[in-house]
Amino acid sequence: xxxxxxxxxxxxxxxxxxxxxxxxxxxxxxxxxxxxxxxxxxxxxxxxxxxxxxxxxxxxxxxxxxxxxxxxxxxxxxxxxxxxxxxxxxxxxxxxxxxxxxxxxxxxxxxxxxxxxxxxxxxxxxxxxxxxxxxxxxxxxxxxxxxxxxxxxxxxxxxxxxxxxxxxxxxxxxxxxxxxxxxxxxxxxxxxxxxxxxxxxxxxxxxxxxxxxxxxxxxxxxxxxxxxxxxxxxxxxxxxxxxxxxxxxxxxxxxxxxxxxxxxxxxxxxxxxxxxxxxxxxxxxxxxxxxxxxxxxxxxxxxxxxxxxxxxxxxxxxxxxxxxxxxxxxxxxxxxxxxxxxxxxxxxxxxxxxxxxxxxxxxxxxxxxxxxxxxxxxxxxxxxxxxxxxxxxxxxxxxxxxxxxxxxxxxxxxxxxxxxxxxxxxxxxxxxxxxxxxxxxxxxxxxxxx
Amino acid sequence: xxxxxxxxxxxxxxxxxxxxxxxxxxxxxxxxxxxxxxxxxxxxxxxxxxxxxxxxxxxxxxxxxxxxxxxxxxxxxxxxxxxxxxxxxxxxxxxxxxxxxxxxxxxxxxxxxxxxxxxxxxxxxxxxxxxxxxxxxxxxxxxxxxxxxxxxxxxxxxxxxxxxxxxxxxxxxxxxxxxxxxxxxxxxxxxxxxxxxxxxxxxxxxxxxxxxxxxxxxxxxxxxxxxxxxxxxxxxxxxxxxxxxxxxxxxxxxxxxxxxxxxxxxxxxxxxxxxxxxxxxxxxxxxxxxxxxxxxxxxxxxxxxxxxxxxxxxxxxxxxxxxxxxxxxxxxxxxxxxxxxxxxxxxxxxxxxxxxxxxxxxxxxxxxxxxxxxxxxxxxxxxxxxxxxxxxxxxxxxxxxxxxxxxxxxxxxxxxxxxxxxxxxxxxxxxxxxxxxxxxxxxxxxxxxx
Lengths: 450, 450
Hints:
2 copies of one chain form a homodimer.
Chain A: E1 8-12, H1 16-30, E2 37-41, H2 90-94, H3 104-117, E3 124-125, E4 128-136, E5 141-148, E6 154-159, E7 161-164, E8 171-172, E9 186-189, E10 203-207, H4 211-222, E11 227-232, E12 245-249, E13 253-255, E14 258-260, E15 266-268, E16 271-274, E17 278-279, E18 302-303, E19 307-308, E20 314-316, H5 326-340, H6 349-364, H7 369-384, H8 393-412
Parallel strand pairs in A: 1-2, 1-7, 2-3, 7-20, 9-16, 10-11, 10-16, 11-12
Antiparallel strand pairs in A: 4-5, 5-6, 8-17, 13-14, 14-15, 18-19
Helix pairs in contact in A: 1-5, 5-7, 7-8
């Protein structure tokens, strides 16, 4: 690795992971240390990434894929205590204790609150999309072609490091379902789901068995769908659903309005929502730089889940399945910073491969959600123990325990799980109750901390 | 220009214009003449371009923008006699006389019927997207980077000519409307409109005043929408609409479900369909090769409406507003072929500029639809008179006259205009009547020529 503080670093994306990377460097800079030159390219006109809600679907005003997958009434689907920055608490941001489950507006406000503390916004080129990255082996440098979307002008800049911080919840994975082309009404992917009220009084077929399916079923239930059928591929979500929501194995085919299920039953639907997940999608990277991975807890091409093994000056943030999110990004970005600055030794290729294989072997033993959570907790521990990120083992274990309690609570009460309160492992503060049960909140006038 | 029959030509897109270009060369080849090497890159898995209907919206299975903007029940919106190949008649293809207005399936069948006559399919690389084109000034050659979507592998090939045949009805133009983010239901662009039955019983707001707005209003009317309000920017379509369809000037803002209009009225809607047109969108071309144009009848960077003035070995097909379509593509592609082969002299830059300015001056005088049609007829005449494409002046003038009759007929009877019959200027054949009036056809079992 090249440890110069004089390096040039490109960060692609000013969402939570890119902002976290800038935070890590900004803290050093504010303590008077020299940091590398950072340029962040962001295709949107503001920072916040996925947390910038948009009414648009498909393509934006410049013909770029719309990044956002958020819906109007999205609330966090895990307690905020599981997604707390160790160096910037919810208490600090909101100046009081707030409920454990919060709407997207509040979550965005919290993330951007920390970003605004530093002056890293000056490093960001907004409305600028990275269209191509290749590594020049001769000059040992990355050529990054970017395009200013407002002027339409492209140009190439060179960098010593490229940090891919574009997330992996933006490009829909849309499998073909036999006969779906005969369905006479709306078929959308969860990426394009914006407002559950559109589905009031409808019979909805939700295809998928993971978190999107679960939450979109809840959303459409809350806003008055007549019935929701969740059709899962691998296994049912298995909650105690209300009578309007049922789970069925993956349909075998559509025929007009009718879905046929493996048990021989069939049922008519008014709309189909594909909750079939997202792709890791990096069309802007040259073939030899492109991470190829399924959804897993340890992408096999990434040392420490971060550094591209074949070219470790190419860095990927947050490409894992995420139990932890903000603190996982921080754990990674503090580590990245310290590797770039030479504070953490960077082993040779074989040593890295051995470390990666050890983690992959460990990952293969994951059998259920709790194993996966333990795996990710151990992963965070390894990263944070190498840096000054203030998430010590005790706090991290506390957060993991809260996560487990929450998973239990959700399983026992899927409809009302967002009304529970948890305590922060960072500050010790117990969340307050919502003034209104989540199922009854349909606007934010009753959310007093907004 | 380089006139070698040994040139290598890249065609981007195997839709109607790309297929037309291959046809032009194939005809020469089948008469024993040597033709250049042609490689056509097509991102879909079949030829037909826009005419390949898809249930998908947004992104395809590879994360590429879905090309298709067609809807299930789309029928031609002009008589087939205005869109007839001069060298391959509808009579020939269907072996009988068929009605003037035909569903998309029949139109696709006709287009592909001609394509299947040649063996040009061997030139096409399917599932292959062109991701970048740049011109190497030193070697005087185009570098074309393509990606095989099924393998994910990219590679670069060099070409003497690049023909851009990707159309301009695929990338939606989506303007912001004040308050649209507060609308609690579905907002789609016509690009994503697939099935009018989804809007049955709904009050629809159609934003736009051109052909998409007109036809989507008719579609939703036919399939049972409660009401349709067309909100136009420039001027009303001005047909004699049935009482369920009304036209209003461009709304000033949305507020929840309610659209506010300049006359002070407001009205609630269940869905919004943006018929706001498409962008000329060529993100795969280096800045210096990219056509920048609005919708017009003579893009000012294209000599003969075809050859990119700054680099005339870069060729654009069908980038004009289209009254004529298939015959316009043929007029262009026969001309392109003969320029490449040195059969048509290619003037120097100044001479080209003078010719372009003369056409632009003429275009500026267009005041209405009839002027525009006359302009495009004259444009076709100039092109076809230089080649052996069998569209003589008499036939072309006949087709133009049919177009004018049709425009009159449509204006006087918007609901039933598709039940009219016209005569072919190519064969003289008069179309037969539909067995069922268009307004009553809701499946194709009654369309006996399919």
